[in-house]
Structure formats: C-alpha cells, structure tokens
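Entry type: protein chain
Record version: 2
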Amino acid sequence: MQYRRIGRSGLRLSELSLGSWVTYHNQVDSVAAREMMAAAFDAGVNFFDNAEAYAVGQSEVVMGEAIKALKWPRLNYVVSTKFFWGLDREGNSINRKDTLNRKYLSQAIDGSLQRMGLDFIDLVYCHRSDPHTPIEETVWAMSDMISRGKALYWGTSEWSADEIRAAWTIAERHHLHKPIVEQPQYHLFYRKRVEQEYKRLYEDIGLGLTTWSPLASGLLTGKYRNGVPPDSRGARHDMGFLVKGLTDAAKNAAVTQLELIATELGCSLNQLAIAWAAHNPRVSSVITGASNLSQLQSNLGAVKVIAQLTPDVMARIEQISSPLAS
C-alpha cells in the first residue's frame, strides 16, 4: 500500500480506503465492520470514509463502535464524515436538512462526534453545495469548526469547479482554513469532472481528491450483464435510480472487453477498475466499499495491479471506455 498527500496538505492517506455508504448498518453490523476494518488496516488502509446521512446516522454509530473495539492509536487512522442532508428528513425545520448554513453545521459536527465516539473528525466534507446559503457563510462555519478543534481539515463533495474556487478564494481573502479536497464520483464511465472540469484547480489551489464509486455501483464487476441479480445493490428498493445505468447494453458490452484485459493481467475485473482509478496521480485515495470480508480482500488486491497498468494497457482501456464516458 502506498500513501499519498491530500493536495498540498501534509495529511497522507492510503491509496485505497474503505467507505461505509449503503453497507454499514444496512448490511454490515458493528461486528462485521470491526472484522473488515481490521483486515483493511492490516493491509495498510488508514482512511475510513463515512457521512451523517448514511443509514440516517447509524453508519457513523457502527463505525464508531468498531473503532472503539479495535483500540487503534488515534494517530494511526483517518476518519471522515459529510454534512448537508441532515438526519430529520421528515421534520419541519428548514434549517435541519439540505443546507450548509452555520446553524446546521455547528450542530451537525457535535452529533457526528457523539455517534462516532471521537473527540474530533479528521476530515469533514460539505456533502453537496447549497445554493440557498452564501458560500462565505459556509466557509466561515467550516473554518470555525477546525479552529474549535472539532475537525482538522475540510473539503467538498460533488461541488462544481467554480464553487470550489469561490470557497478557496474566500478563505484565502479572510485567512481562514481552506478546503483541501474534493470527493467526486470517478470511474471508467464517469470521468470528465475529474479529468477536465477540475484540471486547473490541481495546480492553482492544490486540490486533492478522494474519489468514490470506482466500480460504478457494481457495473464494473460484470454482475449486471444479464440483468439485475436479486441480491445486488441494483435490486434494493432505495437504489432503483441506478438500474438504467447498470443495465446499459453498450457499457456492459465494454465491460466484457475490459474483462479480457483483466484476465491477461491475472486480476479480476473489479481490481482492474479500482486500479485504473488509483492510477490517476491526482487521486489521493480511492474509496472502496464491501459488504463482506472476501469482497473487501478482492478489492484491496487492486493495489498489486496499479503497477501493471503500463501505457499500452492504459491505451487499450481508454479505447474501450472513453467513448462511453461522461
């Protein structure tokens, strides 16, 4: 496992990390989480990603219980969470959901700290941008969160390049803590934001990346070539919005071609896809997910594949995937 700095910060993350979206609480309890986090840690993973909205706060509870049981030294791991959607989805208070105003953020961090049983969160993201709150208010609130010792670094997730630059410029102007990282979706079929939209930001402001969905929600495992398996993510009632993309005929045909390359390299299709995302030097860490130990171990095997992605192999992957990429 190699370790990479987040942008220009001194914080170093494992090139592959472990996230909890969909799985923790819904499929993975604290015992299974402890087992998988321990296995990931033993393999060199030091970054564990979460969010307030995952399983309506329960994902943080599961991860917090696992961390407490593992008794790792606090310096040895990095934990993140994200704020925007809030926990009270049916509540009447407009200041409790879909916002990044100071009132919500100042209380959201306290809730996450309590659920995770931590004194501080290493990395806090603004989970989406908020068109109804001035960016300046959000930047001040996030900077104050760090100044109060409740978080160490902050960043954004799925913000536009213009929004990220605006936040960074405000922080620079007022000598506040700047956003250091963006967490976008990034995989073989979804690339333009990372490779084109953010291109100027890497050099101009030193933006780092922790990317999610390297397997395109399972499309790049090959499991959807014959429809939606009943035990898959696409079959979940709350994941129905994914089905159209997962069953796309052209993309599944490309997946079959990519599998031939994986076979030549002696790896699985999922390992090839994860290694491809990690091959990008702008990516600080690729966030992987798993619902069981064998799945986790398979995904982490991608570490050995990164070095096999020679210019010739990358060109072949590009020829297959780029015509279908957005």
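Comment: The chain has one domain: 3-219+277-309.
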